[in-house]
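Tutorial, part two.
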Amino acid sequence: MYVLPDLPYSEDALAPFVSADTLRTHHGKHHKTYVDKTNELAAKAGLADRPLEDVVRQASRTGDKTLFNNAAQAWNHAFFWRSMRAPGGPQPNGELTRAIAESFDGLEGLKEAFVKEGVGHFASGWVWIVMTSDGLQVISTHDADDTLVREGLFPLLVCDLWEHAYYLDYKNDRKAFLERWFDNVANWDFAAAQLSASTGEGEGFRYPASE
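Running the prediction step on this input gives:
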């Protein structure tokens, strides 16, 4: 049985950039619903004992869209919680700083690309910072689509573009949400750990083991 992972911070830890009300609704209702539905569907598909990453990939291969949408959304949200930390945390450093400089000429260049991609993305989805064979890139995916089913991409950070991620705090101003998210709550320590894992130094993020 897949679990709803606890938030890695308190519900009010990201305020005022992401409110406690948004986190409470987003985590306790939206994410929980995806996890509950995944448990139901994975059991019917005979996949309940598999890591969630395997379930997402298998559902994609077999064309089981309902299972894919719920399992991928469960995974994406867990990765999203880890992509944030309380305001005032450390900025990029070390290898991550060098990778950002090589691909975007610095953090401001990365922010510009990230916000532009997120604002320009039509309807629901996710905006990602990923490592590729050509260095860092910013991409977006639609609906539940994620990096698990895309060859050659290793995710470092993600921000949710579905309206429930920001509408209570920002109404329809997605641009302001993305700018404030990037400047204040993006978890660069997590991104650095993911970057190391992309080169085989440590293990990258995995969804918590099922019970």
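Strands lie at 125-132, 135-142, 154-160. In part three we will examine how such features are distributed along the chain.
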